[in-house]
Specification:
Elements (H helix, E strand, L loop, with lengths): L9 H14 L3 H29 L2 H15 L20 H8 L1
Helix pairs in contact: 1-2
């Protein structure tokens, strides 16, 4: 693994050290996790901004909703009635019995 020295404030270093001690992890592991969490947060923020922009265009948003509705009809393709779930996402009684064997 390559290493790189970076400068962080004393406050950040102390917080990182405390968190590492609390979690029983290395400061490097905690920093890696924090960076990954921040990357994911930025990704989701960008997606939310993109969807907000789509919603501002009624014609485009209407097309997206129509496509979603078309895909929704495929959710039970190929399943017989005993394999379908209830509208709340829970298995039907027949499925529970099958699972229990």
């Amino acid at each position: 693994m390559n290493t790189l020295t970076i400068r962080i404030s004393d406050t950040s270093r102390n917080i990182l050290r405390e968190l590492a001690a609390q979690k029983g992890a290395s400061m490097q592991t905690l920093l890696d996790k924090a960076i990954e969490a921040y990357r994911r947060q930025l990704f989701l923020e960008e997606i939310n901004q993109a969807y907000a922009a789509l919603r501002e265009d009624p014609k485009t948003w209407s097309q997206i909703e129509k496509e979603r509705a078309a895909w929704d009809t495929t959710l039970n393709d190929g399943l017989d009635n005993s394999e379908k779930t209830a509208s709340n996402g829970n298995w039907t009684r027949k499925q529970r019995r099958k699972q229990r064997g």
